[in-house]
């Protein structure tokens, strides 16, 4: 979803939100590698020199855009889980908020998904620290659920989070605009598979016993 940037001539002062909106639009349209600072300045209604004064490189612009996107994701997640007290329900609501945000068509989230690897060196390290804040939000949700007895003993919660992000973020790759399933329906299906598994209930015990035998045989 491209934000309405409005007529360039109407902007007389530096507006960081306008600049970041413009950068997200340009980076999404041309890719980070193909975009230029001049194009971002034009989309924001600024002179390139004025933009360069605040953002000396495309990388600094991208990093601020990444920070805004992650802060928005974190705010959406916190708002989604806030009404619930049950740890499992909080996980379900957070998962739904993440998937719906990625499928909203928002330029910020598109650039976050596809352009973060363009950062290098110190900028990449800062990006990873910012991402760790969002990951920490999910670690807390998972730990609360585990402490409340919702997770099987011995579950590696970090792996659960990594698997979860991999699956949720990939939805933005495979879902087409004509997909009849709404983002909410996709989120609910993912939660169902995550919470209840793939195997039919009467097959779980048999599979579990077989898995224990295989594990014992490898010792």
How is this structure best described in words?
This protein has 219 residues and is an all-alpha fold. The termini are far apart. It contains 10 helices and no strands. Mean pLDDT is 88; it is low at 4-12. Helix 1 crosses helix 2 (37-44) and helix 2 (37-44) packs across helix 3 (48-54). The longest helix has 27 residues, at 121-147. Helix content is 71%, strand content 0%. It has a domain at 58-198: Tetracycline Repressor, domain 2, CATH 1.10.357. It has helices spanning 16-30, 37-44, 48-54, 58-81, 87-102, 107-115, 121-147, 157-174, 183-196, 201-217.
Q: If classified by CATH, what would the architecture of the domain at 58-198 be?
A: Orthogonal Bundle
For the record, what CATH class of the domain at 58-198 applies?
Mainly Alpha
CATH fold-level topology of the domain at 58-198: Tetracycline Repressor, domain 2
Distance between the termini: 54 Å
How many distinct helices? 10
CATH superfamily of the domain at 58-198: Tetracycline Repressor, domain 2
- What does the average pLDDT come to? 88
* Percent in strands: under 5%
- Structure class: mainly alpha
Uncertain residue segments: 4-12
Helix content: over 70%
Radius of gyration: 21 Å
Shape descriptor reads: elongated
Write down how many β-strands occur, each being a DSSP E stretch of 2 or more residues.
0
Run of helices and strands: HHHHHHHHHH
Give a short account of the largest sheet. none
Classify the oligomer.
single chain
């Amino acid at each position: 979803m491209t934000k309405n940037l409005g007529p360039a001539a109407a902007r007389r002062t530096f507006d960081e939100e306008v600049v970041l909106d413009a950068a997200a639009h340009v980076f999404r349209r041309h890719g980070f590698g193909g975009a230029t600072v001049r194009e971002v300045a034009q989309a924001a209604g600024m002179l390139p020199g004025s933009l360069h004064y605040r953002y000396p490189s495309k990388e600094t612009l991208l990093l601020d855009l990444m920070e805004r996107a992650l802060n928005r994701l974190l705010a959406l997640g916190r708002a989604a889980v806030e009404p619930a007290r049950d740890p499992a329900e909080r996980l379900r609501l957070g998962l739904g908020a993440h998937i719906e945000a990625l499928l909203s068509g928002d330029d910020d989230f598109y650039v976050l998904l596809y352009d973060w690897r363009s950062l290098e060196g110190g900028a990449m390290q800062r990006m990873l620290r910012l991402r760790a804040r969002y990951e920490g939000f999910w670690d807390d949700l998972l730990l609360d659920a585990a402490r409340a007895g919702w997770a099987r003993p011995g579950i590696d919660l970090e792996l659960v989070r990594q698997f979860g992000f991999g699956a949720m973020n990939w939805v933005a790759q495979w879902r087409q605009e004509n997909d009849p399933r709404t983002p909410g329906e996709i989120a609910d299906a993912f939660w169902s598979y995550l919470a209840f598994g793939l195997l039919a209930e009467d097959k779980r015990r048999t599979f579990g016993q077989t898995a224990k035998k295989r594990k014992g045989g490898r010792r």
